[in-house]
């Protein structure tokens, strides 16, 4: 079922994004309405798209308590351990401001400070993932963002997913609104009577949410728009084919367009993993979609050696890269393009999705060439600080004039000269 | 000429960006042609837009030597001092990878590594600014980017600005192509026979360059698209009105849409600065454009106290903020939204544009609320590293299964379970 190809015949065809013209028009229209009519429009769209008439968007206090009754104690315990791990990992990303003072008395610095207010979009329905809450909120908390507001679509009774509410509550985020879709993004960006505008919006969503985030980008900041999730496994003859198959399937179940690729110099492993994958697939709950993903975007690539396998990995620049080889340390440093590198038999990708501490918001669609996992820096901003001394200006002012005049910027030169003149220089 | 208003009557009207539909169509067409026809299309567009027929795009070795003969020794000396200052300031921004090992034997880490190849756009003609080269290239060099290529449009003889060439040469960037406009951006993003594709494109340009950068965003990374440059001066009665006026004018000369705003509780300073501005303006080389900027976007805002002045500053979130007050240290910490803060009489904004060491690529149009000056981080990428231990998986695996199953992701749970089963857990 999964195709097995030689390295020379392999190229990953990622589909070019559709233009989504119709959807874009709808989204722009929704944003316009929210900007003009605020809560009233938000109420109307929630009626239209979510099928519920809400007087108040804010999730009430008692909904959080109720949510705990609807999840298992094991779930809460596991969530708390995950939170502790994710917090610990991200705390190492904290930044310091710096300053430098020189002998002329000039102080230069870079102030590093948190964003003031961040909005987190949490999908609802069948894609309501508590883990999404952890991964988007914790880096903001660690950065020191003082205000975090969450939005998530309600069901027809006006309720939101209990797992999501528990996750938010565990993190201390209780400013939660029962709104979803493009209208929720517009409300976060421009504000309504109920929802104050934010500085940045993060979190995944469907195509309407993605297009709305693109449309409000500039008015607010956004993290990147995620494409289909992907995995690439680099393995040799020492890898367990059952593990390889299970790990490929764990990404494939995300959707029909999710690439799942094994690259190996071992033809034996290639064939064993392909058979194991077919066998395991029959037992999976999301079998149909997962099978489609494997048929569309799955591949087993047989290379002449590990060198070539790593080359292919760097070309693909996968979101998740698993390294299941005899001597991983010989190869880790050569993997330059990957969102996350999972090393060894026990580092299966779901470990990172849920639990170990790293962030699961990772660069997709080959953007690991230039992008990073979501991290604390995404919730910080920097400001340059300049206190130039009189001595410095008198000593170096003429050079600044030279540079400004070389660019024909006379008023820039004048701002220096007027000071030198006053000091009799 | 510059309007003087009370705080309650002031609001900064930034114009909403035009849709630029016609220009966008032209740009998409250019990109399409470059993708399909490579150098041949690049040659044709250079003939069409720059009026010169080029066989080779690469700037030849001897052009650099010639460029030094066309600039003054004072210019080269000033440039070298500026380079040393900018390098020193940015070196403090270097990042380290980190790793954490726990008692169960799990290693987590974040690898911080430079982008591999960066393209720098340098405008030509009357807007050819050597300082732009320094500000865009030095952070990339400090980050450790191994390949930096520059593009800049040629004149009708096929030559490029000597100041720009000298700046590039001083920084060791000798892979320079004589191409400009949207066609240069397309070539950097997609590659041609001559120009290999890059991972990130930085640098300012006209509307065609800006639209082209937007269009290739996703295929490559870009820094933000700059809007009109702006300045806001917070000053009290101790400020020198001549300095204030000169500094407002130094930003206004950037273009008709550049806001230049004084906010002060001192009506006397307001009036003196307005008169000084009118007087200084008559002496400036770019008088006409500067005057238009002041009439369009200039303002002197009189507030009831400094508290209110700082509030307005935070609302405007200026690119450049000057603080010319008696006790600046009482106020610096309250300025939360600004690209760069210049403190005191000698910290005129051109000091930062050219020389002191901070970057002059700063967040415009109020984006200082969530954006940062160009810095070394813009040329680094991070990769998560996970080596989960067998003991950790055996101990915590069941929690990961709980979390995955709560989200209905059975293949994720299976990837853990298959390992626990094998180990007899």
Automatic annotation (TrEMBL), chains A, B:
Its EC number is 1.1.1.23. It is an enzyme of class 1 (oxidoreductase). GO terms for cellular component: cytosol. Binds 1 zinc ion per subunit. Pathway: Amino-acid biosynthesis; L-histidine biosynthesis; L-histidine from 5-phospho-alpha-D-ribose 1-diphosphate: step 9/9. Substrate binds at residues 229, 251, 254, 320, 353, 407, 412. GO terms for molecular function: histidinol dehydrogenase activity; NAD binding; zinc ion binding. It comes from the Bacteria. It catalyses: L-histidinol + 2 NAD(+) + H2O = L-histidine + 2 NADH + 3 H(+). Zn(2+) binds at residues 251, 254, 353, 412. The active site is at 319 (proton acceptor), 320 (proton acceptor). Keywords: Amino-acid biosynthesis, Histidine biosynthesis, Metal-binding, NAD, Oxidoreductase, Zinc. NAD(+) binds at residues 121, 183, 206. GO terms for biological process: L-histidine biosynthetic process. Belongs to the histidinol dehydrogenase family. This is Histidinol dehydrogenase. The gene is hisD.
């Amino acid at each position: 079922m999964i195709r097995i190809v030689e390295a020379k015949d392999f190229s990953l065809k990622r589909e070019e994004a559709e233009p989504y013209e119709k959807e874009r028009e709808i989204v722009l229209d929704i944003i316009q309405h929210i900007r003009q009519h605020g809560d009233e429009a938000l109420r109307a769209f929630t009626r239209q798209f979510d099928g519920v008439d809400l007087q108040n968007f804010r999730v009430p206090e008692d909904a959080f308590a109720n949510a705990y009754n609807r999840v298992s104690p094991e779930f809460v315990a596991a969530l708390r351990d995950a939170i502790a791990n994710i917090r610990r990992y991200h705390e190492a990303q904290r930044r310091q401001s710096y300053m430098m003072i020189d002998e002329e008395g000039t102080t230069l610095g870079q102030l590093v400070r948190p964003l003031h207010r961040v909005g987190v979009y949490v999908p609802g329905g069948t894609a309501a993932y508590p883990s999404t809450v952890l991964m988007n909120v914790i880096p903001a908390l660690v950065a020191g963002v003082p205000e975090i507001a969450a939005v998530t679509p309600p069901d027809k009774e006006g309720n939101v997913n209990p797992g999501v509410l528990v996750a938010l509550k565990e993190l201390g985020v209780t400013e939660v609104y029962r709104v979803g879709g493009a209208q929720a993004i517009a409300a976060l960006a421009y504000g309504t009577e109920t929802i104050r505008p934010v500085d940045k919006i993060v979190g995944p969503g469907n195509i309407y949410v993605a297009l709305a985030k693109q449309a409000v980008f500039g008015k607010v900041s956004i993290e990147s728009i995620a494409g289909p999730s992907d995995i690439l496994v680099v393995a040799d003859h020492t890898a367990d084919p059952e593990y390889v198959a299970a790990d490929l399937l764990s990404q494939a179940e995300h959707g029909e367009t999710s690439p799942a690729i094994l690259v190996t110099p071992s033809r034996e492993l290639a064939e064993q993993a392909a058979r194991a994958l077919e066998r395991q697939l029959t037992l999976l709950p999301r079998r149909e979609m997962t099978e489609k993903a494997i048929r569309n975007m799955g591949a087993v690539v047989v290379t002449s050696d590990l060198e070539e396998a790593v080359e292919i990995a760097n070309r693909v620049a996968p979101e998740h890269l698993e390294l299941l080889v005899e001597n991983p340390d010989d190869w880790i440093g050569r993997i330059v393009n990957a969102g996350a590198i999972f090393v060894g038999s026990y580092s299966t990708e779901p470990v990172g999705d849920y639990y170990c501490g790293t962030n699961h918001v990772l660069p997709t669609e080959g953007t690991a060439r230039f992008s990073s996992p979501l991290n604390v820096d995404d919730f910080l901003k920097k400001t340059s600080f300049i206190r130039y001394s009189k001595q410095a200006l008198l000593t170096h002012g003429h050079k600044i004039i030279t540079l400004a005049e070389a660019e024909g910027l006379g008023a820039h030169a004048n701002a220096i000269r007027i000071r030198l003149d006053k000091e009799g220089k």
